[in-house]
């Protein structure tokens, strides 16, 4: 049996190494994972109670329309309920966007180094991925606008960008949107938006009110700490959301995920505390990198990409032997860099101590 031709060349997504696997392989008792941009502080304490309450309903299908959660998120954001769609993580909303709007021969514009699921899902649908090089680690919006043609159906902007952590400002996004034709959907993937503290982050809700072709993606996997439950959502014009809903699988989010997300979004004090701790951790790592003579991209999420001036694989493995899992840039198109999740203060300090040791062992590339 032969699969369809559009998927034969596609790589299988490689997540960060699991903690238990590293313990088993290296005989370690303590392992710190700073590879998958998870929240080191977990989730709101109200989440556990919400999940426990749902156990009594384990034999029942979930609400296919996620009505209660939709109402809560809509109220939180100040949008209408028909402007929201939920998925098994924002990953599934990306899949649904590609399925709903792309046909073979269409074009889709994205950055050269960004979240790989954009290209992955576009190519499954037979669309052509137009990859525009980053500029200083950031989306080059002028070049991306110039790459749009009559065949361009979707433009993907990951903001803050994964893996570099860089951000396009409100002014930059507005200038870009003014150049985009109405037939082209612009996806603002804002998985890390809740971490932003600059005051210059785009107001995507305002933009959605102005542009029918703009959709924002959000997730409960990052600052809300619900990564294992797989729930995210898209915000857009009702007509666009209706089209995406037409390809959504029934019951695509679970009762547990919906209940947990509802509890999580109603605890904004927890979110504020996570944002504050993340900012402190980010500032600490940036200062430590400077002291080590290393350059890092300006970071606006809960991770940072640093150039270690050495083969990333060697530094990655050196850290791994010390019980620190990070994301090696050799897997992301940055052969001398690491992407590191911001951890707790204790985890960050242990990472810097281990990194200092590894840098002393691995020679600098000439």
Tell me about this structure:
By secondary structure, the protein is α/β, with parallel strands linked by helices. The protein has two domains: about 5-40 and about 270-360, Aspartate Aminotransferase, domain 1, CATH 3.90.1150; about 45-265, Type I PLP-dependent aspartate aminotransferase-like (Major domain) (Aspartate Aminotransferase, domain 2), CATH 3.40.640. Helices cover about 40% and strands about 15% of the residues. The protein contains 13 helices and 13 strands. Strands 2-8-7-6-5-3-4 form a seven-stranded mixed beta sheet, with helices on both faces. Strands 9-10-13-12 form a four-stranded antiparallel beta sheet. Strands 1-11 form a two-stranded parallel sheet. Helix 2 (about 45-55) packs antiparallel against helix 10 (about 255-265), helix 3 packs parallel to helix 10 and helix 4 (about 90-100) runs parallel beside helix 5. The mean pLDDT is about 95.
Topology:
Layout: H1 19-26, E1 32-33, H2 45-54, H3 67-77, E2 84-87, H4 90-101, E3 107-111, H5 117-124, E4 128-132, H6 141-146, E5 152-158, H7 170-177, E6 185-189, H8 204-210, E7 214-219, E8 232-235, H9 238-245, H10 255-265, H11 268-291, E9 295-296, E10 303-307, H12 312-321, E11 324-325, E12 327-328, E13 337-341, H13 345-361
Parallel strand pairs: 1-11, 3-4, 3-5, 5-6, 6-7
Antiparallel strand pairs: 2-8, 7-8, 9-10, 10-13, 12-13
Pfam family, one: Aminotran_1_2
Family: Belongs to the class-II pyridoxal-phosphate-dependent aminotransferase family. Histidinol-phosphate aminotransferase subfamily.
Keywords: Amino-acid biosynthesis, Aminotransferase, Histidine biosynthesis, Pyridoxal phosphate, Transferase
